[in-house]
Specification:
Strands 6, 7, 8, 9 and 10 form a 5-stranded antiparallel sheet that branches. The longest helix has 35 residues, at 563-597. The chain is of the alpha+beta class and 779 residues long. The chain has 3 domains: 57-91 and 222-394 and 401-443 and 569-760, no CATH class; 116-214, 2-Layer Sandwich (Alpha-Beta Plaits); 471-561, Alpha-Beta Plaits, CATH 3.30.70. α8 packs antiparallel against α22 (679-707). It has helices at residues 57-67, 69-90, 104-114, 139-150, 190-199, 201-205, 216-219, 224-245, 248-273, 282-308, 315-342, 350-381, 403-413, 415-430, 451-463, 479-483, 485-500, 533-550, 563-597, 600-626, 646-676, 679-707, 714-746, 755-760, and strands spanning 122-129, 155-158, 174-181, 209-212, 438-439, 471-476, 505-508, 512-513, 519-526, 557-561, 642-643. The chain starts with 56 loop residues before the first helix and ends in a 19-residue tail after the last helix. It is found in: Cell membrane. Residues 1-55 are annotated as: Disordered. It is a multi-pass membrane protein. Residues 143-415, 453-756 form the Membrane transport protein MMPL domain.
């Protein structure tokens, strides 16, 4: 393949920012959008613009798919059926599993397992309440339920609240049955839930209240909301596409491609889940991303095809050129999103990395469907793309007198005004982000209709708020303490006294030794709930000063572990590593855009504007959830902190999606620039060609994200609001305002690339030289 042109216009002798003779300055009417609406004379092509040549790889791929449509469709049908059957037979389950190697919380948990302290596996409470009565009068029902639970598969041990110290409330009305499972019960499936309900049947038959605490409560959480969310997103997409395209055929094609890609991606994810541990929210996040980008990518291709049909009579050739142009943008956009999501692994936490991998998988499968199945369907429809019209179809603008060309003219006359105004809007929206408070959300943040939330409330009311988030103190003794029982008992008394004196402590249990006398274990109950700021302060005090002070003068080492400690450590870890993830993602996206568009300024500007956009989205999330502005309308009954991994996930996803629209817009602008050498005309043409389709795509993707507000998970609601708002901001303020305004201001500097950097960068252009303006090319 012939080496493609770089597309750069600098020869090394030109100063960046200089304009060729006759180029309009800001404040004057840009070339190509004169006052009369007539286009100005074409400018000479910039140096290095690609010469016509044989069709490139993407062009040939698109044309082949169009000419062999039924083969492509058959392959996809077999692939979908095969993946679905394989997922059903060998697919894995999804459950939250958080490990933090190298941290004190993880070391403490490992020590407990290594020295046989307590039951192994994952524990979950079942809260049993007798109302104003006493549980002691229901002994037979409790013993029957405990026995039934113990006979369930995957159950290691069950505690009886009537005989276990600390498991019965002071008034005797509420007890906690603790069940130890071999694995996380959240991923056991609906059939297991039915057996669990049967086991506790004697309690309910005795008119006792039974609520499942987390993580068992996650198993009982409603699952139908995700399917409803996907249906709502598709319904809105149908409406938007009908209004945008005006025909049923053009509407159905992007939807069919997106659904096929999503189904294949989710089935593949299910197969991977059998070998890789994915969080419970992984398929929901993957569905959000896969459906949104799948519709977007097919929409951009379909729009470009309809425009090319005006000049290319043979449909297969029009499809080839569609894939050669917009298909290249799809390829770059998908690679950018996947790169951003892969950057989550830089945080060093597998829980976050696998969430990004799940979303990235459906994005890449959606792009593959768009680049193969969409061309095949376009080839079948041919010139019948506008059949079954519901209104007069609207295609890409063919002249320069349409609304978007006029809007480009307004931007070109006052670029500074629009640039500053847009940045001001984003800055105001970002203000709440300065007050962000991160925490690992627990059942206390869930809607009151969920059983794990009701269990949480019962524990807080009857055992105290801190009983929902106790901290486990593990002290590893040195050899002399293990051998000397008197010194060990003295240390245990000192430890309890010192810890009880710390501010924010409600109670400290007497330290007990492990079976081999190597560990001292105690439970510290905070005065406040696990999401309260004071509990986080107590954890840090215990870890950093309280335990070291209590153990001073000995060779013993203390650790704070348990579910609450792990969640707080998780928050600290992500907060510390967020700058690294941001740096990795921004650097990777910068290099990708620099390689593709051969422009330093375009890559820098894209990264900076996306950071503004993400900060604004953070601000909205803080205002809605942490400050409670309208959160009750979303089914969130209390002000809650921001889930610790939401900012990191949002950054990767929003940055990747923002680059999607950036790539589609800049691809059209650069295309015109290489053809004419006129920066103003390139910006106006690119904006006019993509504004309507970007707006439609943004409405669809926003609808897909916001539809997931139906989920019962507060974390999913946070992601839905953050991602939905970010797409709106990006498609309006950034893409239709800030990007074109800044490109008008920087003029020819937009396309400057130092000669030395141009030589060092790899050349990414699957198309090679440009396709001739006419003719179908070889078959």
């Amino acid at each position: 393949m012939q080496r493609p042109s770089t597309g750069a216009v600098s020869t090394g002798s030109e100063a960046p920012g200089t304009e060729p003779p006759g180029t309009a300055l800001p404040g004057t009417e840009p070339p190509g959008i004169g006052a009369t609406g007539a286009p100005s004379a074409p400018r000479p092509k910039p140096a290095g613009a690609p010469a016509p040549g044989p069709p490139g790889l993407l062009h040939r791929t698109g044309r082949w798919c169009a000419r062999h449509a039924w083969r492509v469709i058959a392959v996809w049908a077999v692939l979908l059926a095969g993946l679905a059957v394989a997922d059903h037979a060998w697919g894995g389950d999804y459950a939250d599993s958080l490990t933090l190697p190298g941290t004190g919380a993880q070391t403490g948990a490992d020590l407990l397992r290594a020295h046989g302290s307590g039951a192994a596996g994952v524990s979950a409470p079942i809260v049993v309440g007798a109302g104003p009565g006493s549980l002691a009068g229901h002994r037979a029902a409790i013993e029957a339920a405990v026995g039934g639970l113990g006979r369930l598969p995957d159950v290691l041990a069950v505690t009886d609240p009537l005989t276990t110290p600390g498991a019965l409330s002071a008034n005797g009305s509420t007890g906690i049955v603790t069940v130890h499972f071999t694995g996380n019960p959240a991923g056991f499936g609906p059939a297991y839930l039915a057996r669990l309900d049967d086991a506790v049947g004697p309690l309910r038959a005795d008119r006792l209240t039974v609520e499942y605490g987390a993580p068992l409560g996650q198993l009982a959480a409603p699952r139908a909301a995700d399917r409803a969310s996907e249906a709502i997103g598709l319904a809105v997409a149908v409406l938007v596409l009908l209004l945008g395209f005006g025909s049923v055929a053009a509407t159905g094609l992007p939807l069919l491609t997106a659904v096929a890609g999503l189904a294949a991606g989710l089935s593949a994810l299910g197969l991977l889940a059998a070998r890789v541990g994915f969080a419970q929210s992984a398929p929901t996040l993957a569905a959000m991303m896969g459906l949104g980008v799948g519709i977007d990518y097919a929409l951009f291709l379909t729009t470009r095809y309809r425009a090319l049909l005006r000049d290319v009579p043979e449909p297969a050739e029009a499809v080839g050129r569609t894939v050669a142009t917009s298909g290249r943008a799809v390829l770059v956009a998908a690679a950018t999103v996947a790169t951003a999501l892969a950057g989550l692994y830089a945080g060093g936490v597998s829980f976050i990395g696998t969430l990004g991998a799940a979303a990235g998988l459906t994005v890449l499968v959606g792009a593959a469907a768009s680049l193969t199945l969409t061309p095949a369907l376009l080839g079948l429809l041919g010139g019948r793309i506008d059949r079954l019209r519901v209104r007069t179809p609207v295609s890409e603008p063919a002249g320069d007198a349409d609304l978007w060309h006029r809007w480009a003219g307004v931007l070109g006359r006052r670029p500074w005004l629009f640039l500053v105004g847009g940045l001001l809007v984003l800055s105001v929206l970002a203000v709440p982000a300065a007050a962000i408070r991160l925490s690992h959300l627990d059942a206390g943040s869930q809607p009151t209709g969920r059983t794990d939330r009701r269990a949480y409330d019962l524990i807080g009311e009857n055992f105290g708020p801190g009983a929902n988030g106790p901290l486990t103190v593990v002290v590893q003794l040195d050899g002399s303490l293990v051998a000397d029982r008197a010194r060990r008992e003295a240390l245990a008394a000192t430890l309890r006294r010192e810890l009880a004196a710390l501010p924010g402590v409600a109670a400290v249990s007497p330290p007990v030794t492990a079976p081999d006398d190597v560990l001292l274990i105690s439970t510290v109950t905070p005065e406040a709930g696990p999401q309260d700021r004071s509990t986080a302060e107590l954890f840090h005090t215990l870890r950093d000063t309280g335990l070291p002070h209590a153990l001073a003068g000995t060779d013993a080492t203390g650790y704070v572990t348990g579910g609450t400690a792990t969640g707080l450590t998780f928050t600290d870890t992500l907060a510390a590593r967020l700058p690294l993830v941001v740096g990795v993602v921004v650097a990777a996206a910068f290099l990708l855009l620099l390689t593709v568009f051969r422009s330093v300024l375009v890559a820098v500007k894209a990264a900076l504007l996306n950071l503004f956009s993400i900060a604004a989205a953070y601000g909205v999330v803080v205002a809605v959830f942490q400050w409670g502005w309208g959160s009750s309308l979303l089914g969130v009954t209390a002000e809650v902190p921001v889930e610790s991994y939401v900012p990191m996930m949002m950054f990767a996803i929003v940055f990747g999606l923002s680059m999607d629209y950036e790539v589609f817009l800049l691809s059209r602008i650069r295309e015109t620039w290489l053809r004419t050498g006129d920066n103003h005309l390139a910006v106006a043409t690119g904006l006019a060609a993509t504004a309507r389709v970007i707006t439609c795509a943004a409405v669809i993707m926003t609808s897909v994200f916001l539809a997931f507000l139906l989920s019962s998970s507060v974390v999913v609601k946070m992601l839905a609001v953050g991602l939905g708002v970010s797409v709106i901001i990006d498609a309006t303020v950034v893409r239709l305002l800030l990007v074109p305004a800044s490109m008008y201001l920087f003029r020819r500097a937009n396309w400057w690339l130092p000669r030395r950097l141009d030589e060092l960068l790899p050349h990414f252009d699957p198309e090679g030289p440009a396709v001739p303006a006419a003719g179908g090319g070889p078959r």
